[in-house]
Amino acid sequence: MDRRPLDKRPQWQGRPPDHRSMPDRIDPCLALLKPKPPKGSQWAFEVKWDGYRLAVHIEPSGVRILTRGGHDWTDRFPAIAAEARRLPVATAILDGEAVVFDEPAGGEEAIRLSEEIEADGDVLLCIACEHGLEGIIAKDRNSTYRSGRGGEWLKIKCIQSDGFAIVGYEKSTASFGGIGRLLLAARKGDELVYVGGVGTGFNERSAADLREQMDKLIIAKPAIDTGRKRNAVFVRPELVAEIEYRAWTHDGKLRHASYKGLREEQDTAAVYAVDLALKAG
């Protein structure tokens, strides 16, 4: 991205703009998961960055960096905050993804534009997957920015990754933390439904930490119907695990699942809605 020198903010002639209309925060526009890229000239494509969703608020009183859940994390991203202060705007809200590059970015590169890539969606997705990226984003050129998941933005992933509630685990003396397999659930309306388990992706430390948290939530009976399980321990569905998976089975279970960690409760602990699950053969 070409950058011009950012020496100072613009000088306003006459009466300054009214900044009181700037919102304290806005709910972000969320991408709707789709199995394939959309067709048509109305769609613009970008790389899907695998990072942490942030909103940078630039105001006369200063800069604030808010998480998706509205928590002020300005102090955690000093490089982004410093560059935001140098941008030649009086007020703005920048919606973006905090990522870590292989080669650290510094100075004015702490904020970069995720540029449109002129390519066929199917071809771009293949290239993104070959390079180990998470996937691509498609944005409707005719839409405006709207909070929520309305379909103006679409995400197409190389590997699916979503949050699932932990409802229990199967014990194993041969596995890290004694966890043979986590038992997982997704949302279906106002209820949780069993979507299978995951027994890979753990290391000694993550399994021990997870086991410590789960053992504080043990209950006598399962919160949902998981079918008959041997050596199962059931827990209150308060922890949300980030799970990578390749597809869904015909009976609504995760296929080739791998544990990636726990989602943070205050921001990204939303449980996946099975109504939107992409069932594959």
From TrEMBL:
InterPro entries: ATP-dep_DNA_ligase, DNA_ligase_ATP-dep_C, DNA_ligase_ATP-dep_cent, NA-bd_OB-fold. The keyword Cell membrane does not apply. It catalyses: ATP + (deoxyribonucleotide)n-3'-hydroxyl + 5'-phospho-(deoxyribonucleotide)m = (deoxyribonucleotide)n+m + AMP + diphosphate. Residues 40-105 form the ATP-dependent DNA ligase family profile domain. Pfam families: DNA_ligase_A_C (PF04679), DNA_ligase_A_M (PF01068). GO terms for biological process: DNA recombination; DNA repair. This is DNA ligase (ATP).
